[in-house]
Specification:
The complex is a heterodimer of chains A (about 325) and B (about 500).
Chain A lengths: L1 H6 L1 H20 L6 H26 L7 H18 L5 H26 L3 H20 L9 H4 L3 E6 L5 E5 H19 L1 H11 L1 H6 L4 H27 L10 H11 L11 H20 L7 H15 L19
Antiparallel strand pairs in A: 1-2
Chain B lengths: L14 E10 L2 E11 L4 E5 L6 H8 L10 E4 L2 E3 L4 H6 L2 E4 L11 H5 L14 H15 L14 H14 L4 E5 L7 H16 L3 E5 L3 H7 L2 E6 L2 E7 L5 H9 L17 E10 L3 E9 L3 E5 L6 H8 L7 E6 L2 E3 L4 H7 L1 E4 L3 H5 L6 H6 L7 E2 L2 E2 L1 H14 L16 H13 L5 E5 L7 H16 L3 E5 L3 H7 L2 E6 L2 E6 L6 H9 L1
Parallel strand pairs in B: 3-8, 3-9, 6-7, 7-8, 13-20, 13-21, 16-19, 19-20
Antiparallel strand pairs in B: 1-2, 1-4, 4-5, 9-10, 11-12, 11-14, 14-15, 17-18, 21-22
Helix pairs in contact in B: 4-5, 14-15
The chains are: A mainly alpha (about 325), B alpha/beta (about 500).
């Protein structure tokens, strides 16, 4: 128990903050504490969680990526176009195309970083501009509404009618999100590759001396984020039922804040899938609560910013001092 | 694994290198070096910083490729050069000075990291990892909580983790680069026992240390390098510390205690009953102008905590500090610097210097106001001040603009000293000034310290090596468990007596 608290201090602090907010919102609004609202939260958070677990892998490996959200927009556009050529397709084909395109775009980042030794923030700010510039140039900013039917049809996996006559539904994005979360969790905690990613982010020189292929690490990390971004792009198109070239522009900072909030360290070697999910949920619960409370949407960003600051302060390592069992001086038994 | 086992005969070397040459940026780092290790022996590699020891280790472990013409025979096989993979597969393990560990990962993962390397992804076998890690620790006779992240452990235990990791690799040849640099005496003794056990179980150990007493104690043969060239290979029997120093530096040194008359000198620092519960209690001491006060004691005795308190980075619970006749209570180290206190950190690598920045910039960082000209930063003034220090302290550098990280340990320490001299201090606290600095360079640093004392500076010299304070301080305080438990005057008390008290 004690060890669990020590190694999961960030996650527990986040859970506590989320719990406080939830209790407050349950009393402050009628609608917050309902199954329907909980499912809505999951449905709307799915895309960000998929992005977040992808970005987590890059952060763990000691990198950062600014370009993934606009890369997802590029993937949406290209996937819609390719689906048009092959005359429809289905979810499996769509996910494969989007995932492959995402991996390709992620690999461009990895290539720039590995081949030309550009630090990841600079490389991805460049590709962020290039991807978005190319997208706007070739599309002229025009949206695609003419998507295949399978992509625009809502897929309800579970539904239940509530006492007040509304429907609580879990939709396909939640399933896809769950699969992405599971896959990422398995990758980083259960495979040797995942442990190598952690080690590489923690101490690149130490990893190199073990003969770990640094280039491969970059391609795996950015490739994985690309894969997740591609999938998230397709899911977002499904959710929005249209492809708008600048729909995801700016999303990268929201996701980055949520992932760092979840305990991932800028600089590598640290971060967990659970923390990542909690980070995204904290932000979306706050937004959801503000919505339900009728707060002006113009105030959202400000309040969300304040919540992120408060939560990150709480999950600071120095908070360990406030724990009931202080860190022992000698960790040896 | 290599498919041939060593036949165990002492005459046949496990490792033999010939004609190894390495050049970095036009500088010859290794000149036609040969090197030999017998199976199961403890072999010491001695040389000053920059003599090529680390480069040689990196050639053997495949990090560097030597120039054409080199011949490496290891475990019955010949190679033109090694690769990290062949070296590791052949059982060559290195415990690097920086340990190359992963602080965020658990002890088990650090020790058994080898179980998750390899090109193709597999599932992590946590049970196997745990078993491998506990086995390795058991072989060393150590108990650690292997599920805890490594950053929770002090440096001495991280060292143990690094050694345990080497054992996991079915090591036949283990390199230890300065393994005792940050260990206390009892931890060092313990480590040397472990090295003996390794050697007795047939593992050859190549030991690199600046502490020559250890070298003499542990090794059977010593290979000495100087300026990238082989000086010779000597059996340890018959060698003395001063002989090794001579071989390493090509110079002779004399060791004698200081004899300075300070009776007329006024008191610069007076500390009365200073306490910080849990760190140090009731510490009283005085330092005169021109005096060097040595403070020794085991790691964790509260020496560094005391120094940081005098430097204003921690606030004392009770007690008084009088500096140059004026009572002081520092709210921060900025106030301490302004009042004339300078503190040279034990951890030069991470705290004392900004490694990637230019030598000149590091020197002026604590005294930026001195290089302002009409409110603006003056490059000319910086250049002339820096040139003065480089000359006075005899720092060997290429250009002032080079990064500090390009310098050797001894020269880095001089840069750190220059940084503080620039603030024109009254009291200079040197905390472990020779950690990671080799013998020749140590003498140079103490020359500087002695000259500084002669200019009227009060100096506190903190070190866990008793001989260091014995030969370089006017008085020696012994600190244990946060208290001053003894005061000695070198010469009046013998070195052995003080060592006996400190290491008891």
């Amino acid at each position: 128990m004690r060890r669990f608290v020590r190694s999961h201090a960030t996650e527990l602090a986040l859970l506590a903050v989320i719990a406080v907010i939830c209790v407050f919102l349950s009393f402050a609004t009628d609608r917050f504490f309902t199954l329907g609202n909980a499912f809505d939260l999951l449905n709307t958070s799915s895309v960000n969680i998929i992005f977040a677990v992808g970005l987590l892998v890059v952060l763990i490996a000691g990198g950062i990526d600014i370009s993934f959200a606009v890369a997802a927009s590029v993937v949406q556009y290209l996937t819609a176009t390719v689906l048009g050529w092959i005359g429809g397709g289905n979810w499996i084909v769509g996910l494969i195309i989007a995932g492959a395109l995402g991996v390709a775009l992620g690999s461009i980042n990895a290539f720039l970083i590995q081949r030309f030794r550009i630090i990841s923030i600079v490389a991805t700010i460049s590709t962020f501009n290039i991807f978005f510039g190319l997208l706007m140039f070739f599309t002229g900013g025009v949206s695609i509404y003419n998507l295949p039917d399978w992509l625009t049809t809502r897929v309800v996996l579970f539904e239940r009618e509530m006492a007040d006559g509304t429907w609580a539904e879990i939709t396909l994005p939640v399933l896809i999100m769950a699969l992405c979360v599971f896959a990422t969790w398995a990758l980083i905690t259960r495979t040797t590759t995942g442990r190598q990613l952690y080690a590489f982010g923690d101490n690149p020189e130490g990893a190199r001396r073990f003969g770990i292929n640094i280039g491969a690490m970059q391609f795996i990390a950015f490739g994985w984020l690309g894969l997740m971004a591609g999938i998230a792009g397709l899911v977002q198109a499904h959710y929005a039922q249209e492809v708008v070239p600048n729909a995801l522009y700016g999303r990268e900072l929201d996701v980055l804040a949520a992932v760092v909030l979840g305990g991932a360290r800028l600089g590598g070697g640290k971060g967990s899938v659970l923390g990542c999910i909690l980070g995204v949920l904290l932000v979306s619960i706050t937004q959801n609560g503000l919505n339900l409370m009728g707060v002006s949407p113009f105030a959202f960003k400000m309040i969300v910013g304040a919540i992120i600051l408060a939560a990150i302060t709480l999950s600071n390592p120095s908070i360990e001092r406030l724990l009931p069992f202080p860190k022992s001086r000698r960790a040896a038994s | 694994m290599a498919d041939q086992e060593p036949d165990g005969s002492a005459s046949r070397p496990l490792l033999s290198l010939r004609n190894v040459n390495m050049t970095f940026g036009g500088v010859k780092a290794l000149k036609n070096v040969s090197f030999e290790v017998l199976p199961g022996e403890v072999h010491c590699l001695a040389g000053e910083n920059g003599s090529g020891k680390s480069t040689l280790i990196k050639v053997i472990t495949g990090v560097y490729k030597p120039e054409a013409g080199a011949k490496i025979d290891y475990d019955g096989q010949s190679h033109a050069h090694m690769s990290p993979v062949t070296a590791q597969a052949g059982g060559i393990q290195v415990i690097w000075q920086d340990l190359a560990l992963f602080p965020e990962m658990t002890v088990a993962e650090n020790i058994a990291f080898q179980t998750v390397t390899g090109r193709w992804p597999r599932l992590v076998n946590h049970a196997e990892m745990w078993r491998v890690a506990t086995n390795a620790l058991q072989r060393l006779g150590v108990t650690l909580d292997v599920d805890l992240a490594l950053h929770n452990f002090p440096i001495a235990q991280r060292q143990i983790v690094a050694i345990a990791r080497a054992l996991v690799g079915e090591a036949k040849l283990v390199f230890m680069d300065e393994p005792t640099a940050s260990l206390t005496q009892s931890e060092t003794d313990y480590l040397l026992d472990i090295v003996r056990n390794l050697s007795a179980s047939g593992v050859a150990v190549v030991f690199v240390s600046h502490r020559l007493a250890e070298v003499l104690e542990i090794s059977s043969r010593v290979t000495v390098l100087r300026d990238g060239a082989l000086v010779g290979v000597y059996p340890t029997k018959g060698l003395t510390q001063s002989r090794i120093t001579e071989l390493m530096t090509g110079k002779t040194f004399d060791y004698s205690v200081l004899h300075r008359d300070l009776s007329t000198s006024s008191v610069m620092l007076e500390v009365k009953g200073l306490s910080r519960p849990g760190e140090f209690e009731d510490v009283s001491l005085t330092v005169r102008r021109g005096e060097t006060l040595g403070i020794t004691g085991l790691l964790g005795a509260g020496r560094t905590e005391l120094a940081l308190t005098l430097f204003g980075m921690r606030k004392p619970r009770s007690g008084a500090v009088v500096l140059d006749g004026k009572p002081v209570r520092f709210g921060s180290n900025r106030e301490a610097i302004a009042a004339g206190v300078a503190y040279l950190s034990e951890d030069r690598l991470s705290l004392g210097l900004i490694q990637p920045q230019a030598i000149a910039d590091n020197m002026v960082i604590a005294s930026l106001d001195k290089i302002l000209s009409g409110g603006f930063f003056s490059s000319d003034r910086k250049r002339s001040l820096v040139s003065g220090w480089i000359r006075d302290l005899g720092i060997k550098i290429g250009k002032q603009e080079d990064a500090v990280s390009t310098l050797s340990g001894g020269n880095q320490q001089r840069v750190a000293i220059a940084k503080w001299l620039a603030t024109e201090p009254k009291l200079l606290i040197l905390d472990g000034p020779t950690v990671g600095v080799d013998v020749g360079a140590r003498a140079g640093i103490f020359d500087i310290v002695s000259k500084l004392a002669d200019t009227g500076l009060a100096i506190i010299l903190i070190s866990d090596e008793v001989p260091e304070v014995y030969f370089n301080a006017d008085r020696v305080l012994h600190m244990a468990q946060g208290r001053i438990v003894g005061e000695y005057v070198p010469g009046a008390t013998s070195l052995q007596a003080i060592e006996g008290a400190v290491y008891a």
